[in-house]
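Consider the tokenized backbone below.
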């Protein structure tokens, strides 16, 4: 069921509907009421109480006044002190109409509970004295029945008893000196019960200049009068004094006003009773009573409030927790048809402005708001921050009059109005427009952030309160969140920090950031950063690749046995369908190294950017550079920002860096692998590209690349001998040449794309070693002379990896082995020995030949050798390299065998005819000690 709009359940007073109210109507004037010249709603007791909500504080105060004028107790002096527009004068008027007797108190419905509590059916007549500090002037005597009355005490006594009473203090009035408390007490007793209402006292006192005498006396004599009066009232059981004072120094008006306020507070506080101020809930009722006729359909109101409560429970994760409580539902009923959040913003935020009158200011504003919404036929269920008609000039001016200069363009551009950005955004996206989401969000933020001072630490509204002020049942909070993101990205005066949002007259840093983007050049500023970020992402790839080449020309990419990752430049983006610039560029690098043909094509893997993301990536780089420059200028004081905005800039910079890192992974996400299939006739087919999308959520880009290469069979780090044997049969062994050099096999695997791609040569070496343990895959030899294999071995273990190593087809190897075995008896039973087991880097050293025999053939001996000793002289210029060769080519044959004990000693002898300098002697001796040289490391 649709929620009924507020206009069907709460009808504004006729003057609010017509817009005929005057601002002055909201300003109660005690002296005008006393003179009988006020407007009807203030002058007529029945009308006044019909539009007055008797708050708890007012109820207690009226009861206190009744006790005093009936002589049954109560506090004699009551000081009313609230913010400007807080209801002080209105409260004095309530006392005035109750006690004046023009309309019997028991006929006024709002006063019946007060009388009942006091146990009275009606009130006795009481004298009412009104002393209005704005109406009276220190140097402006009032002529009463031909008698000139000069002072406050003269006015007081004259209003109590006329000329006869005035005659008793005539001399004091003429001289401007305060009468004593006894004289004042006598006048109060003679004309009691009496009520003294003093309004705007400070306004009267601040007109006195110290040391100067006026017709109304001096500053000191008037303070003395206040002290005497409070003492006199306390001594008279049926007299009561109520005085209003401003709450803030600003309202006191200048240095003299502040001094007067402090002095009056001192005297009143000696005797005064505490007056309970208006609570937030009571403020709701005050406004509703003044602006709306009574709500007749209470069940309809409850249905609306229940609908909001259900909505708040359903969307609990997006809204403040208190809105789900039963108390908040009751609060909505009390405030209806105005949403409590709007009252919260007005009474909590706007009332902090010294010029904003707490109750009167709310009444003036809401009268204009309600008039415009009524006129426009607004059908919202409640009047909320999100539907305050800020497009209306009357409403807009009422609000910005309280704010510093500069808000007009902000309102028109970024908040509300036909030409505002929120209206444009709603026009461009239907889901925003259907709920007026952008405007409602913008209004809610303005109502909660515009009054905040610049120096406030936690400025603005959090998201949950924005949603509370904008969202209505039947719509999703997500619409308003999305609208807020759009506004934050595009508005010039909307700021965000610490998950809070606020408007400011100063343009936000986003506009400054956007303008700075133009400073940065693609070649000199943008590409180096992208290259650095990519380098960081793949820089630890050397366990997988021998090197990575980022945006590197083909001429600078070596053509060797190393497995290399080539990262293609931004202009060479890849697309999943259609012509790919990435494939074209990769093909060029694959085929050529500069002007020369590239041989080892099977050693290149390509990483390509996604063509659709390259522009965004460059824009994000410019964004990061812009925020970085703003933060730098802020720290260097070249750009003046308040602390909150400065922290916001730092947060934006950090967010830009994070976004850029993610964007790099989102952009460089295509792994391009060149392959070549074999046709049915066993001929290599055309070049093909295997494109694999890398996961952007992977913890490591290198790990993701390795995973894709291995899972799709593009890279092998462990190879079984059976695969090598099949490859040899297909491409190497023939009937004429049943053997192939291992070095040639490795060379071909580097060059041709139809071969398996091994991680490095060690994979092939380990594969050959595994194959040497059996007779299924291949035999070995280190050369062939005619029909004879030198250093032949088959099934006797792993051979040394030598540049001359031959891999022999197993059937041929078996036949050769059997042939050699058959010849053995003819040779005295000696069979050809197997090659030595070990590993020597390809093309380096071969086993020494003994007696002209084949490699690895040991010299005949009668007993096995058990000890080796050797001495070598190294060239000092290449000693480091030569010693490495000794370790690789000689020592490893000992250290890899169990049970071998190896001792290495290094002898160094250096001489210089002129002698070494002291610095060299000291340095060498210290380093020798650190390196663990024996004690014999000495100079002589």
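A designed sequence for it:
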């Amino acid at each position: 069921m649709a929620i009924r709009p507020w206009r069907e359940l709460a009808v504004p007073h006729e003057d609010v509907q017509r817009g005929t109210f005057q601002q002055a109507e909201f300003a109660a004037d005690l002296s005008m009421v006393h003179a009988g010249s006020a407007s009807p709603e203030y002058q007529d007791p029945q009308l006044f109480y019909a539009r007055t909500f008797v708050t708890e504080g007012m109820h207690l105060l009226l009861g206190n006044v009744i006790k005093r004028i009936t002589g049954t107790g109560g506090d004699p002096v009551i000081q009313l002190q609230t913010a400007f527009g807080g209801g002080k004068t209105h409260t004095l008027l309530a006392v005035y109409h109750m006690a004046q007797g023009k309309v019997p108190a028991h006929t006024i419905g709002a006063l019946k509970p007060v009388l009942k509590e006091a146990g009275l059916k009606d009130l006795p007549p009481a004298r009412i004295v009104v002393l209005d500090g704005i109406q009276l002037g220190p140097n402006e005597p009032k002529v009463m029945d031909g008698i000139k009355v000069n002072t406050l005490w003269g006015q007081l006594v004259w209003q109590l008893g006329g000329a006869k009473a005035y005659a008793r203090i005539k001399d004091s009035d003429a001289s401007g000196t305060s009468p004593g408390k006894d004289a004042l007490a006598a006048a109060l007793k003679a004309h009691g019960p009496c009520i003294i209402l003093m309004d705007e006292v400070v306004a009267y006192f601040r007109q006195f200049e110290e040391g100067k005498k006026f017709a109304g006396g001096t500053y000191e004599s008037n303070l003395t009068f206040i002290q005497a009066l409070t003492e006199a009232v306390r001594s008279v059981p049926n007299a009561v004094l109520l005085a209003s004072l401003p709450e803030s120094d600003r309202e006191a008006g200048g240095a003299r006003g502040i001094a007067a306020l402090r002095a009056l507070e001192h005297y009143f506080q000696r005797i005064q009773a505490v007056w309970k101020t208006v609570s937030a809930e009571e403020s709701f009722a005050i406004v509703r009573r003044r602006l709306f006729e009574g709500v007749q359909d209470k069940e309809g109101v409850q249905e609306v409030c229940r609908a909001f409560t259900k909505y708040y429970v359903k969307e609990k994760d997006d809204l403040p927790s208190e809105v789900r409580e039963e108390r908040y539902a009751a609060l909505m009923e009390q405030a209806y048809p105005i949403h409590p959040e709007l009252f919260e913003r007005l009474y909590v935020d706007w009332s902090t402005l010294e010029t904003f009158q707490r109750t009167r200011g709310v009444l003036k504003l809401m009268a204009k708001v309600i008039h415009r919404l009524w006129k426009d036929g607004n059908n919202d269920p409640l009047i909320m921050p999100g539907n305050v008609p800020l497009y209306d000039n009357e409403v807009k001016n009422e609000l910005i009059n309280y704010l510093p200069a500069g808000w007009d363009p902000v309102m028109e551009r970024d908040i509300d109005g036909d030409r505002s950005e929120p209206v444009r955004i709603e026009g461009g996206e239907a889901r925003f427009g259907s709920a007026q989401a952008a405007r409602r969000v913008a209004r809610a933020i303005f109502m909660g952030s515009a009054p905040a001072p610049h120096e406030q630490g936690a400025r603005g509204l959090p998201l949950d309160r924005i949603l509370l002020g904008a969202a209505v049942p039947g719509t999703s909070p997500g619409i308003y969140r999305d609208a807020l993101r759009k506004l934050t990205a595009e508005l010039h005066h909307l700021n965000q920090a610490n998950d809070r949002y606020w408007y400011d007259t100063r343009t936000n840093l986003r506009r400054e950031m956007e303008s700075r983007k133009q400073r940065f050049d693609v070649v000199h500023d943008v590409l180096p950063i992208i290259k650095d970020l990519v380098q960081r992402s793949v820089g630890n790839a050397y366990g997988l690749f021998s090197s990575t080449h980022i945006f590197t020309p083909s001429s600078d990419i070596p053509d060797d046995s190393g497995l290399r990752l080539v990262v293609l430049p931004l202009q060479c983006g890849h697309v999943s369908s259609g012509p790919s610039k990435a494939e074209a560029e990769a093909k060029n690098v694959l085929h050529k190294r500069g002007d020369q043909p590239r041989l080892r094509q099977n050693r290149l893997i390509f990483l390509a950017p996604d063509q659709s993301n390259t522009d965004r990536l460059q824009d994000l780089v410019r964004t990061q550079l812009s925020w970085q420059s703003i933060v730098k200028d802020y720290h260097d004081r070249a750009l003046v920002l308040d602390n909150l905005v400065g922290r916001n800039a730092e947060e934006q910079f950090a967010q830009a860096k994070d976004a850029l890192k993610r964007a790099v992974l989102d952009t460089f996400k295509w792994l391009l692998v060149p392959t070549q299939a074999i046709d049915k006739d066993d001929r290599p087919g055309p070049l093909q590209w295997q494109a694999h999308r890398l996961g952007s959520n992977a913890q490591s880009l290198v790990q993701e690349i390795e995973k894709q290469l291995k899972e799709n069979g593009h890279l092998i780090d462990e190879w079984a001998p059976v695969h090598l044997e099949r490859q040899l049969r297909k491409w190497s062994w023939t009937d004429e040449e049943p053997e192939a050099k291992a070095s040639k096999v490795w060379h071909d695997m580097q060059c041709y794309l139809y071969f398996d791609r091994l991680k490095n040569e060690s994979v092939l070496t380990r594969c050959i070693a595994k194959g040497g343990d059996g007779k299924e895959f291949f035999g070995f030899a280190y050369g062939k002379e005619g029909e004879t294999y030198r250093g032949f071995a088959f099934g006797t273990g792993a051979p040394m990896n030598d540049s001359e190593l031959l891999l022999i087809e197993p059937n041929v190897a078996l036949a050769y082995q059997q042939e050699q075995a058959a010849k053995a008896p003819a040779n005295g039973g000696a069979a050809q020995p197997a090659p030595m087991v070990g590993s020597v880097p390809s093309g380096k050293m071969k086993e020494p030949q003994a007696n002209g025999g084949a490699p690895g053939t040991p010299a005949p001996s009668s007993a096995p050798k058990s000890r080796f000793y050797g001495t070598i002289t190294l060239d000092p210029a290449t000693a480091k390299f030569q010693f490495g060769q000794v370790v690789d080519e000689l020592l490893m044959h000992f250290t890899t065998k169990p049970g071998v004990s190896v001792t290495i000693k290094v002898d160094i002898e250096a001489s210089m005819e002129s002698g070494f300098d002291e610095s060299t002697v000291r340095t060498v001796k210290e380093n020798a000690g650190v390196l663990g040289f024996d004690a014999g490391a000495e100079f002589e």
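The radius of gyration is 50 Å.
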